[in-house]
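Handout, page 2. Input:
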Amino acid sequence: MIFGALGITAAPGAWAAAAPRPYQTAEDAKKVEGASSSADAPKVAPGLFTDRIEPGEEKYYALDLDASSDVHITATAAPEPGLKVTFQDGIEVTLQNTNGDSCGDGRSTGAGDTAFPLSATTSRLIGDSGDEACRAKGPYLVHVVREEGDNSDPSSWPLELSVMKEPGLKGSIPAPRPGTDEETDENNTRPAPPSGTARTREGGTGFNDARALGDGVWKDRLRPGETRYFRVPVDWGQRLYARMEVPNAPQREGTGSTFLPNGFRMNVYNPARCRVFDEDFQSYDGDGANFDRYTNPVRYENRFADANTDTRFAGWYYLAVTAAPDMAQPFPKGVPVTLRVAVKGETKTGPAYDGDAKAAGFGVGDKDREMAEKGLTEAEVEDNALLRTLGWTGVGAGAALLAVLAVWFLVARRRSAAPPLPLTGGQPPYQGGYGYPPR
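Output:
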């Protein structure tokens, strides 16, 4: 990790012919084995957990909730890159009370006959006017199901479970603003895309090592079949603009038509890893293509709107970009990708949380903006902090050594200036030292 923190990266294109990198679950995630029966469900809590799930398998996990916090649960299933995953394959997550009643569910399915990480989210919202039984303090169940199609991949998939606890509010819960439902991506007037020389930022393999981006133009090169993750800090009142571009393909003799119905894909996720948009793959015809999204402003009350409900809190918003396996035809040495990113709007004052929302993963701080400016991952920030600590420790040790040497030098000077010590028996002192007899 320290090499990345020091800015040492592999030479561009050195890995282009290698296999696409799979999704990497968090290194500090706790391993858990979900049960097929709710009676045997292992306990989970706010944090990250890893498991595996087979085709058609369902798993239960137990979760204790209070009566004041919102909770957001995302299940991410990660099929191996390069596999065929259809719209019949998917992952579904449901939060249930112990009576078996659903308190919310989320579902994500495949697209483009291409494997990419599937993330499904469900939330328990205290301000929801639904069933009070889902807002009570007590035990709940997280139910995860892997849906399978006619020709599904028979292997088990890595499964990452993210549980995020969002503090409640001190005051009243705001109602949705009038006009929020009309602030859709289709109705939003696009800003001018950022321009300038693109800088290289290699994306991460998942949410956990996503590369931070700020405003500007960025480039990367994806292996066909690979999904890479980036993240952008978006504060209260702000909105995210993101544009993905794939250039024209080099002309090659004998290749025929370069039209690909499933070329590339970009999706936006909020800090709870919930999809902001439900995306499909974009086609590619060899002449270059692009795709963009522009979110509505981030507001707490968006969660209670009929549309645009997922821009509901400030924090890290994620971009997941995928190059379909067929993109190896026009780009055998890797798919060049350009990302144009801009965060628009003035920062607004956030809601009065009854707790530390930033520590829970909901909010933007100066450290986040610095990470985006420098393009660091969370691991690299930790590495840099370690290097700084070691540096200051070294400075401290050096200062301590200098202090010891200074004291030793001072004592030696004082000794050399002190009067000779008298010898016993009235003999005159030996002039060659301090009390040592002559040889």
